[in-house]
From TrEMBL:
<dbReference type="Pfam" id="PF20259">
    <property type="entry name" value="tRNA_Me_trans_M"/>
</dbReference>
<feature type="domain" description="tRNA-specific 2-thiouridylase MnmA-like C-terminal">
    <location>
        <begin position="281"/>
        <end position="354"/>
    </location>
</feature>
<keyword id="KW-0820">tRNA-binding</keyword>
<dbReference type="InterPro" id="IPR046885">
    <property type="entry name" value="MnmA-like_C"/>
</dbReference>
<comment type="similarity">
    <text>Belongs to the MnmA/TRMU family.</text>
</comment>
<dbReference type="Pfam" id="PF20258">
    <property type="entry name" value="tRNA_Me_trans_C"/>
</dbReference>
<dbReference type="InterPro" id="IPR046884">
    <property type="entry name" value="MnmA-like_central"/>
</dbReference>
<feature type="region of interest" description="Interaction with tRNA">
    <location>
        <begin position="148"/>
        <end position="150"/>
    </location>
</feature>
<protein>
    <recommendedName>
        <fullName>tRNA-specific 2-thiouridylase MnmA</fullName>
        <ecNumber>2.8.1.13</ecNumber>
    </recommendedName>
</protein>
<keyword id="KW-0808">Transferase</keyword>
<feature type="active site" description="Nucleophile">
    <location>
        <position position="101"/>
    </location>
</feature>
<keyword id="KW-1015">Disulfide bond</keyword>
<feature type="binding site">
    <location>
        <position position="125"/>
    </location>
    <ligand>
        <name>ATP</name>
    </ligand>
</feature>
<feature type="site" description="Interaction with tRNA">
    <location>
        <position position="126"/>
    </location>
</feature>
<keyword id="KW-0067">ATP-binding</keyword>
<keyword id="KW-0547">Nucleotide-binding</keyword>
<feature type="binding site">
    <location>
        <begin position="6"/>
        <end position="13"/>
    </location>
    <ligand>
        <name>ATP</name>
    </ligand>
</feature>
Length: 365
């Protein structure tokens, strides 16, 4: 097959490309340039889009002996991932930019362009597995290494794009194995630190990035009864479940910590309250992506609402095209905008964006 290998400049994508070459595929490497403003890139390999990463990707391609190109996807990245990030926070929701990058950039812009150029598949260094079901359809599964599993952020891609994807690292036992393999192949990035943080927030200061883009918007922080207990410089800088950074002027009557319970963008208020008010029993999800037919009735599954969060047992059903998942024992601190992924064992059943939550005693948000 003709395979386009997405080379981020990290060890994972380089080893994934090497494995595609070993498998006999005709591999071409490509690095995605996601910003035209060079000072937006961070240094020290903290993110996945630094200046150093582009050079590391080129050197990896040289070692592998494959052609290498840089594709400018900066405009698409700004119009989709960054714009979505800002709009979601402005609306009082909590987005996951890695999910949106996979949706709009890696498995939309990149894959669509690859197919248009005659490539059969896109290969990435994500830790997830693709298995073929008895009916010939492809299934997305968790990686063998649970600590590195990235099926959560990949679930948004859907079955059509999964059919043209390759994840050669899905069966790797650990990241140390990937690093050892990179070293054995002569890849100089074998000891390169893992990327973290949001790649387009150059200094890692997300509230500062939001403030620079959205401006100062002072408002009140209120208790559940509407009593003003503090002020803020922008409700967009808060998320449900947050405790740190509230700077409340009045302590709670019981002396216990207070957490963000809700963000009200219209009134520009942040609502705080006790920890037990964060507990919810049902999650509501829209913009649903299914890997296979939607369940006809209620289905037992596990749900995950954070990239590195623990899965929780649940029962899910479809109502008017949306997902309703009742979680055994409930969850705490779930915010609208988060990605909700449903699993049956290691297999991804579907993905949705959280639109709201419910408590058995009433609506939580």
């Amino acid at each position: 097959m003709r395979v386009l290998a997405a080379l981020s400049g990290g060890v994972d994508s380089a080893v994934a490309a090497a494995r595609a070459v070993d498998a006999g595929h005709d591999v071409v490497g490509v690095h995605m340039a996601l910003s035209r403003t060079r000072d937006q890139f961070r240094t020290g390999s903290r993110g996945c889009c630094s200046i150093e990463d582009a050079g590391d990707a080129r050197r990896a391609a040289d070692v592998l002996g494959i052609p290498y190109y840089v594709w400018d996807l900066s405009e698409r990245f700004e119009e989709t991932v960054v714009a979505d990030f800002l709009a979601e926070y402005e609306a009082g929701r909590t987005p996951n930019p890695c999910v949106r990058c996979n949706e709009h950039i890696k498995f939309a812009a990149l894959l669509d362009k690859a197919v248009a150029l005659g490539f059969d598949a896109v290969c990435t260094g994500h830790y997830a597995r693709i298995e073929t079901a008895a009916d010939g359809s492809r299934e997305l599964h968790r990686a063998r290494d649970a600590a590195k599993d990235q099926s959560y952020v990949l679930a948004v891609m859907g079955p059509e794009r999964l059919a043209r994807s390759m994840f050669p690292l899905g069966d790797v036992a650990s990241k140390s194995q990937t690093r050892a393999e990179a070293a054995a192949r002569g890849l100089s990035i074998s000891a390169k630190p893992d990327s973290y943080d949001i790649c387009f927030v150059a200094d890692g200061d997300t509230p500062g990035f939001l403030r620079d883009r959205l401006g100062s918007r002072p408002g009140d922080v209120v208790d559940t009864d509407g009593t003003v207990v503090g002020t803020h410089d922008g409700a967009y800088a808060y998320t449900v479940g947050q405790r740190r950074g509230l700077a409340l002027g009045r302590p709670a009557a019981d002396g216990k910590p207070r957490y963000v319970l809700a963000i009200e963008p219209v009134s520009n208020r942040v609502v705080v309250g006790p920890a037990d008010e964060l507990a919810v029993d049902e999650l509501l999800g829209g913009d649903v992506v299914w890997f296979g037919a939607p369940p006809a009735g209620e289905v037992a599954c596990e749900v995950q609402v954070r990239a590195h969060g623990a899965p929780a047992a649940a029962r899910a059903r479809v109502e008017d095209g949306a997902v309703v998942a009742r979680v055994d024992g409930g969850l705490r601190g779930v915010a609208a905008g988060q990605s909700l992924v449903l699993y049956a064992g290691t297999r991804v059943l579907g993905q949705a964006t959280v639109t709201g939550t419910r408590r058995l005693s009433g609506v939580a948000s």
